[in-house]
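Field reference: sequence -> structure
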Amino acid sequence: MADASVLIGLGSIEQLTLLNDRFPQGILIPQAVWREVVEQGARRPGAQEVASATWIGVQPVTSLGIVRLLKTDIEEGEAEAIALAYEIDADLVLLDERAARRAAHRLGLETLGTIGMLMWAKQSGRVPNLKVLLDALQTQGRFRISRTLYAQALNEVGE
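Structure field:
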């Protein structure tokens, strides 16, 4: 289960396939995330890769009440991703925004974000250098990373 920010972030630095490496069974995204990444973001990095990835499935959300409640605090794509993860009893949901992660945790869901994915890739030997990817994420992907989180991530992987 993934929200748009993880797909866009990894796509912007040409690392979207890390998701397939980490989740070889594939990932699901709700329709709101598909619309945001592929339709509305058609010209953005990663949109075409998401559209053509056979390991990314789109599934409609049926728990519309949960989505409505979540949308009072978070965006539609995040709300649908969390609701869908809850519906299918997913092991985890891919989210970056703090408010969305808090909402997912309240429903008993584990979360993993873009930086966590990159840390996993470094620790599992799929990428040689986390710093290069974090820098690219900030410049190419216009991804905001606090200095504290940046330093913690590098420290955790021994860079």
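Note: The domain at 4-114 is CATH 3.40.50.1010 (Rossmann fold).
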